[in-house]
Protein backbone atom coordinates (compact mmCIF):
# COMPACT_ATOMS: atom_id res chain seq x y z
CA UNK A 1 0.00 0.00 0.00
CA UNK A 2 1.20 3.50 -0.87
CA UNK A 3 0.53 4.74 2.66
CA UNK A 4 3.20 2.43 4.08
CA UNK A 5 5.87 4.11 2.02
CA UNK A 6 5.57 7.29 4.07
CA UNK A 7 8.46 7.79 6.50
CA UNK A 8 7.93 8.18 10.24
CA UNK A 9 9.32 11.76 10.02
CA UNK A 10 6.71 12.71 7.42
CA UNK A 11 3.94 11.11 9.48
CA UNK A 12 5.23 12.93 12.54
CA UNK A 13 5.12 16.28 10.74
CA UNK A 14 1.54 15.56 9.58
CA UNK A 15 0.54 14.55 13.11
CA UNK A 16 2.12 17.70 14.48
CA UNK A 17 0.22 19.90 12.01
CA UNK A 18 -3.02 18.16 12.99
CA UNK A 19 -2.32 18.69 16.70
CA UNK A 20 -1.40 22.35 16.15
CA UNK A 21 -4.59 22.94 14.10
CA UNK A 22 -6.80 21.36 16.75
CA UNK A 23 -5.01 23.29 19.50
CA UNK A 24 -5.35 26.51 17.55
CA UNK A 25 -9.07 25.88 17.19
CA UNK A 26 -9.40 25.23 20.92
CA UNK A 27 -7.47 28.42 21.76
CA UNK A 28 -9.58 30.34 19.25
CA UNK A 29 -12.79 29.23 20.94
CA UNK A 30 -11.37 30.10 24.35
CA UNK A 31 -10.26 33.52 23.12
CA UNK A 32 -13.66 34.08 21.58
CA UNK A 33 -15.33 33.38 24.92
CA UNK A 34 -12.97 35.77 26.70
CA UNK A 35 -13.51 38.41 24.02
CA UNK A 36 -17.29 38.14 24.27
CA UNK A 37 -17.18 38.24 28.06
CA UNK A 38 -15.00 41.32 27.83
CA UNK A 39 -17.37 43.07 25.41
CA UNK A 40 -20.33 42.17 27.59
CA UNK A 41 -18.66 43.53 30.68
CA UNK A 42 -17.85 46.78 28.85
CA UNK A 43 -21.48 47.04 27.74
CA UNK A 44 -22.70 46.36 31.27
CA UNK A 45 -20.42 49.09 32.60
CA UNK A 46 -21.97 51.54 30.14
CA UNK A 47 -25.48 50.46 31.20
CA UNK A 48 -24.62 50.94 34.90
CA UNK A 49 -23.27 54.41 34.16
CA UNK A 50 -26.44 55.36 32.30
CA UNK A 51 -28.60 53.96 35.10
CA UNK A 52 -26.55 55.74 37.74
CA UNK A 53 -26.86 58.99 35.88
CA UNK A 54 -30.65 58.49 35.67
CA UNK A 55 -30.70 57.68 39.38
CA UNK A 56 -28.82 60.89 40.12
CA UNK A 57 -31.44 62.91 38.23
CA UNK A 58 -34.24 60.99 39.96
CA UNK A 59 -32.62 61.66 43.35
CA UNK A 60 -33.06 65.36 42.66
CA UNK A 61 -36.62 64.86 41.37
CA UNK A 62 -35.68 66.58 38.18
CA UNK A 63 -32.75 68.72 37.21
CA UNK A 64 -33.44 72.32 36.41
CA UNK A 65 -31.39 74.27 33.92
CA UNK A 66 -31.41 77.94 33.07
CA UNK A 67 -29.75 77.79 29.68
CA UNK A 68 -29.54 75.17 26.96
CA UNK A 69 -31.92 73.67 24.45
CA UNK A 70 -35.34 75.28 24.47
CA UNK A 71 -36.78 72.16 22.78
CA UNK A 72 -35.64 69.51 25.19
CA UNK A 73 -37.30 69.90 28.58
CA UNK A 74 -40.32 68.63 30.43
CA UNK A 75 -41.65 71.77 32.10
CA UNK A 76 -40.57 75.34 32.57
CA UNK A 77 -40.91 77.94 35.27
CA UNK A 78 -40.52 81.66 34.97
CA UNK A 79 -39.18 83.94 37.66
CA UNK A 80 -38.98 87.69 37.66
CA UNK A 81 -35.31 88.48 37.89
CA UNK A 82 -32.70 91.02 37.00
CA UNK A 83 -29.90 88.64 36.01
CA UNK A 84 -28.57 87.48 32.65
CA UNK A 85 -30.74 85.49 30.20
CA UNK A 86 -33.95 87.32 30.98
CA UNK A 87 -36.61 87.76 28.32
CA UNK A 88 -38.12 91.05 27.20
CA UNK A 89 -40.56 90.96 30.08
CA UNK A 90 -37.85 90.48 32.66
CA UNK A 91 -38.47 86.76 33.29
CA UNK A 92 -35.72 84.16 33.68
CA UNK A 93 -36.76 80.72 32.37
CA UNK A 94 -35.92 77.45 34.13
CA UNK A 95 -36.36 74.18 32.21
CA UNK A 96 -36.78 70.83 33.93
CA UNK A 97 -35.35 67.54 32.76
CA UNK A 98 -36.62 64.19 34.02
CA UNK A 99 -34.29 61.13 34.13
CA UNK A 100 -35.21 59.62 30.72
CA UNK A 101 -34.90 62.98 29.01
CA UNK A 102 -31.55 63.68 30.68
CA UNK A 103 -30.38 60.17 29.73
CA UNK A 104 -31.37 60.78 26.09
CA UNK A 105 -29.42 64.04 26.05
CA UNK A 106 -26.48 62.23 27.67
CA UNK A 107 -26.65 59.60 24.92
CA UNK A 108 -26.72 62.31 22.24
CA UNK A 109 -23.57 63.88 23.70
CA UNK A 110 -21.85 60.47 23.88
CA UNK A 111 -22.89 59.75 20.27
CA UNK A 112 -20.95 62.84 19.17
CA UNK A 113 -17.99 62.08 21.43
CA UNK A 114 -14.93 59.95 20.64
CA UNK A 115 -16.14 57.16 22.93
CA UNK A 116 -16.29 53.89 20.94
CA UNK A 117 -19.23 52.65 23.03
CA UNK A 118 -22.55 54.35 22.33
CA UNK A 119 -25.88 53.82 24.06
CA UNK A 120 -29.56 54.45 23.54
CA UNK A 121 -32.65 54.10 25.70
CA UNK A 122 -35.69 52.88 23.84
CA UNK A 123 -39.03 51.15 24.24
CA UNK A 124 -41.60 49.13 22.32
CA UNK A 125 -43.96 52.08 23.00
CA UNK A 126 -41.90 55.28 22.90
CA UNK A 127 -43.08 58.54 24.37
CA UNK A 128 -40.63 60.50 22.23
CA UNK A 129 -40.35 59.32 18.59
CA UNK A 130 -36.65 60.25 18.67
CA UNK A 131 -36.18 57.24 20.96
CA UNK A 132 -37.67 54.76 18.44
CA UNK A 133 -35.87 51.39 18.36
CA UNK A 134 -33.63 50.32 15.44
CA UNK A 135 -33.76 46.79 13.98
CA UNK A 136 -31.53 45.22 16.62
CA UNK A 137 -33.46 46.96 19.41
CA UNK A 138 -36.80 45.80 17.95
CA UNK A 139 -35.54 42.20 17.99
CA UNK A 140 -34.15 42.63 21.51
CA UNK A 141 -37.41 44.16 22.78
CA UNK A 142 -39.48 41.38 21.21
CA UNK A 143 -37.24 38.70 22.75
CA UNK A 144 -36.96 40.15 26.26
CA UNK A 145 -40.72 40.84 26.37
CA UNK A 146 -41.50 37.30 25.24
CA UNK A 147 -38.92 35.37 27.28
CA UNK A 148 -38.53 37.63 30.30
CA UNK A 149 -34.75 37.70 29.69
CA UNK A 150 -32.80 40.39 31.53
CA UNK A 151 -30.45 40.96 28.59
CA UNK A 152 -29.90 40.14 24.94
CA UNK A 153 -26.84 40.50 22.72
CA UNK A 154 -25.79 39.95 19.11
CA UNK A 155 -23.00 40.81 16.66
CA UNK A 156 -24.42 43.07 13.94
CA UNK A 157 -22.39 44.68 11.13
CA UNK A 158 -19.07 44.80 12.95
CA UNK A 159 -20.72 45.95 16.18
CA UNK A 160 -21.34 44.13 19.43
CA UNK A 161 -24.90 45.05 20.39
CA UNK A 162 -26.12 44.55 23.93
CA UNK A 163 -29.53 45.33 25.38
CA UNK A 164 -30.44 45.35 29.05
CA UNK A 165 -34.09 45.16 30.01
CA UNK A 166 -35.55 47.91 32.19
CA UNK A 167 -38.77 47.43 34.11
CA UNK A 168 -41.39 49.89 35.24
CA UNK A 169 -41.52 50.58 38.95
CA UNK A 170 -44.50 52.08 40.79
CA UNK A 171 -42.86 55.53 40.56
CA UNK A 172 -42.68 55.31 36.73
CA UNK A 173 -46.40 54.63 36.30
CA UNK A 174 -47.38 58.18 37.27
CA UNK A 175 -46.06 59.23 33.83
CA UNK A 176 -46.21 55.97 31.81
CA UNK A 177 -49.52 54.54 33.10
CA UNK A 178 -52.95 56.01 32.42
CA UNK A 179 -52.54 59.22 30.37
CA UNK A 180 -55.55 60.66 32.22
CA UNK A 181 -53.50 60.58 35.42
CA UNK A 182 -50.21 61.70 33.85
CA UNK A 183 -48.72 65.07 34.76
CA UNK A 184 -49.97 67.93 32.68
CA UNK A 185 -46.51 68.91 31.42
CA UNK A 186 -45.94 65.39 30.05
CA UNK A 187 -49.24 65.45 28.12
CA UNK A 188 -48.56 68.98 26.94
CA UNK A 189 -45.18 68.16 25.45
CA UNK A 190 -45.62 64.52 24.33
CA UNK A 191 -49.37 64.13 23.79
CA UNK A 192 -51.41 61.34 25.35
CA UNK A 193 -51.01 58.61 22.74
CA UNK A 194 -47.53 57.16 23.03
CA UNK A 195 -45.48 55.89 25.94
CA UNK A 196 -48.49 55.18 28.20
CA UNK A 197 -50.52 52.15 29.26
CA UNK A 198 -47.74 50.44 31.25
CA UNK A 199 -48.22 48.69 34.58
CA UNK A 200 -45.73 48.20 37.39
CA UNK A 201 -43.38 45.29 36.51
CA UNK A 202 -43.89 45.64 32.76
CA UNK A 203 -40.89 45.76 30.46
CA UNK A 204 -40.33 49.51 30.08
CA UNK A 205 -37.76 49.14 27.33
CA UNK A 206 -34.06 48.50 27.00
CA UNK A 207 -30.84 50.38 27.41
CA UNK A 208 -28.90 49.30 24.34
CA UNK A 209 -25.15 49.59 23.89
CA UNK A 210 -23.09 49.36 20.66
CA UNK A 211 -19.36 48.64 20.73
CA UNK A 212 -17.25 48.27 17.56
CA UNK A 213 -16.11 44.64 17.38
CA UNK A 214 -14.05 43.31 14.48
CA UNK A 215 -14.36 39.57 13.96
CA UNK A 216 -11.95 37.80 16.28
CA UNK A 217 -9.89 36.20 13.48
CA UNK A 218 -8.89 39.70 12.37
CA UNK A 219 -7.87 40.64 15.88
CA UNK A 220 -6.22 37.25 16.46
CA UNK A 221 -3.58 38.05 13.83
CA UNK A 222 -2.42 40.93 16.03
CA UNK A 223 -1.91 38.52 18.93
CA UNK A 224 0.49 36.24 17.00
CA UNK A 225 4.04 37.61 16.83
CA UNK A 226 7.54 36.18 16.34
CA UNK A 227 7.70 35.17 20.00
CA UNK A 228 4.49 33.13 19.79
CA UNK A 229 5.57 31.41 16.55
CA UNK A 230 8.97 30.52 18.08
CA UNK A 231 7.23 29.14 21.17
CA UNK A 232 5.03 26.93 18.98
CA UNK A 233 7.91 25.75 16.75
CA UNK A 234 10.58 25.05 19.39
CA UNK A 235 8.72 22.15 21.09
CA UNK A 236 8.03 20.70 17.64
CA UNK A 237 11.71 20.85 16.68
CA UNK A 238 12.70 19.26 19.99
CA UNK A 239 10.13 16.48 19.51
CA UNK A 240 11.21 15.89 15.90
CA UNK A 241 14.86 15.81 16.95
CA UNK A 242 14.01 13.27 19.66
CA UNK A 243 12.08 11.03 17.26
CA UNK A 244 14.99 11.11 14.80
CA UNK A 245 17.79 10.64 17.34
CA UNK A 246 16.11 8.05 19.52
CA UNK A 247 14.12 6.07 16.98
CA UNK A 248 14.69 6.77 13.31
CA UNK A 249 18.54 6.87 13.16
CA UNK A 250 19.06 3.73 15.32
CA UNK A 251 16.44 1.89 13.25
CA UNK A 252 18.26 2.86 10.05
CA UNK A 253 21.55 1.55 11.48
CA UNK A 254 19.95 -1.70 12.64
CA UNK A 255 18.28 -2.14 9.24
CA UNK A 256 21.70 -1.91 7.55
CA UNK A 257 23.18 -4.47 9.93
CA UNK A 258 20.19 -6.81 9.49
CA UNK A 259 20.55 -6.51 5.74
CA UNK A 260 24.24 -7.44 5.87
CA UNK A 261 23.56 -10.34 8.22
CA UNK A 262 20.85 -11.54 5.82
CA UNK A 263 23.39 -11.69 3.00
CA UNK A 264 25.69 -13.83 5.13
CA UNK A 265 28.26 -11.15 5.94
CA UNK A 266 29.90 -11.40 9.33
CA UNK A 267 29.00 -7.84 10.41
CA UNK A 268 29.26 -7.32 14.17
CA UNK A 269 26.29 -5.76 16.01
CA UNK A 270 27.47 -3.05 18.36
CA UNK A 271 26.00 -3.90 21.79
CA UNK A 272 28.71 -2.16 23.81
CA UNK A 273 27.34 -0.46 26.91
CA UNK A 274 23.83 -1.96 26.59
CA UNK A 275 22.45 -3.40 29.82
CA UNK A 276 20.89 -6.84 29.32
CA UNK A 277 17.83 -5.73 31.33
CA UNK A 278 17.37 -2.48 29.42
CA UNK A 279 13.89 -0.99 29.03
CA UNK A 280 14.91 0.95 25.93
CA UNK A 281 13.06 -0.76 23.06
CA UNK A 282 15.74 0.10 20.49
CA UNK A 283 18.41 -1.43 22.75
CA UNK A 284 16.23 -4.53 23.18
CA UNK A 285 15.96 -4.75 19.40
CA UNK A 286 19.76 -4.37 19.09
CA UNK A 287 20.33 -7.23 21.56
CA UNK A 288 17.81 -9.43 19.76
CA UNK A 289 19.48 -8.69 16.43
CA UNK A 290 22.86 -9.48 17.93
CA UNK A 291 21.55 -12.85 19.14
CA UNK A 292 20.04 -13.54 15.75
CA UNK A 293 23.30 -12.64 14.04
CA UNK A 294 25.22 -15.01 16.35
CA UNK A 295 22.84 -17.90 15.69
CA UNK A 296 22.92 -17.24 11.96
CA UNK A 297 26.69 -17.22 12.01
CA UNK A 298 26.67 -20.44 14.02
CA UNK A 299 24.23 -22.08 11.64
CA UNK A 300 26.31 -20.98 8.67
CA UNK A 301 29.47 -22.32 10.29
CA UNK A 302 27.82 -25.68 10.98
CA UNK A 303 26.50 -25.82 7.45
CA UNK A 304 29.96 -25.13 6.00
CA UNK A 305 31.51 -27.81 8.23
CA UNK A 306 28.85 -30.34 7.22
CA UNK A 307 29.39 -29.52 3.58
CA UNK A 308 33.19 -29.91 3.95
CA UNK A 309 32.65 -33.22 5.68
CA UNK A 310 30.36 -34.45 2.92
CA UNK A 311 32.87 -33.33 0.31
CA UNK A 312 35.59 -35.28 2.09
CA UNK A 313 33.46 -38.43 2.12
CA UNK A 314 32.64 -38.10 -1.55
CA UNK A 315 36.29 -37.78 -2.49
CA UNK A 316 37.44 -40.75 -0.42
C1 LIG B 1 -41.99 62.68 35.15
C2 LIG B 1 -42.58 61.73 34.27
C3 LIG B 1 -41.80 60.46 34.03
C4 LIG B 1 -41.51 59.52 34.94
C5 LIG B 1 -41.81 59.48 36.45
C6 LIG B 1 -40.81 58.48 34.21
N1 LIG B 1 -40.72 58.82 32.89
FE1 LIG B 1 -39.94 57.69 31.42
N2 LIG B 1 -40.15 59.18 30.14
C7 LIG B 1 -40.74 60.39 30.41
C8 LIG B 1 -40.57 61.28 29.30
C9 LIG B 1 -41.05 62.69 29.23
C10 LIG B 1 -39.86 60.57 28.32
C11 LIG B 1 -39.38 61.05 26.96
C12 LIG B 1 -38.01 61.68 27.15
C13 LIG B 1 -37.40 62.15 25.86
O1 LIG B 1 -37.79 63.20 25.37
O2 LIG B 1 -36.50 61.45 25.37
C14 LIG B 1 -39.62 59.26 28.88
C15 LIG B 1 -38.96 58.26 28.21
C16 LIG B 1 -38.72 57.01 28.72
C17 LIG B 1 -38.06 55.96 27.99
C18 LIG B 1 -37.47 56.04 26.59
C19 LIG B 1 -38.43 55.66 25.53
C20 LIG B 1 -39.53 56.65 25.32
O3 LIG B 1 -40.64 56.36 25.78
O4 LIG B 1 -39.28 57.71 24.70
C21 LIG B 1 -38.03 54.90 28.84
C22 LIG B 1 -37.45 53.51 28.53
C23 LIG B 1 -38.60 55.31 30.09
N3 LIG B 1 -39.04 56.59 29.99
C24 LIG B 1 -38.70 54.51 31.19
C25 LIG B 1 -39.05 54.99 32.45
C26 LIG B 1 -38.89 54.25 33.67
C27 LIG B 1 -38.33 52.82 33.77
C28 LIG B 1 -39.32 55.07 34.68
C29 LIG B 1 -39.28 54.77 36.16
C30 LIG B 1 -37.97 54.42 36.72
C31 LIG B 1 -39.76 56.29 34.08
N4 LIG B 1 -39.58 56.21 32.73
C32 LIG B 1 -40.31 57.34 34.79
C33 LIG B 1 -41.39 60.71 31.58
C34 LIG B 1 -41.29 60.02 32.74
UniProtKB/TrEMBL annotation:
Transmembrane domains' residue ranges: 12-31, 220-243
Domain HAMP: 245-301
Record-linked CDD domains: HAMP
Keyword tags: Membrane, Transmembrane, Transmembrane helix
Signal peptide: none
Domain of life: Bacteria
InterPro entries (UniProt xref): HAMP_dom, Tll0287-like_dom
Pfam assignment, any one: Tll0287-like
Protein name, as recorded: HAMP domain-containing protein
Organism: Cellvibrio zantedeschiae
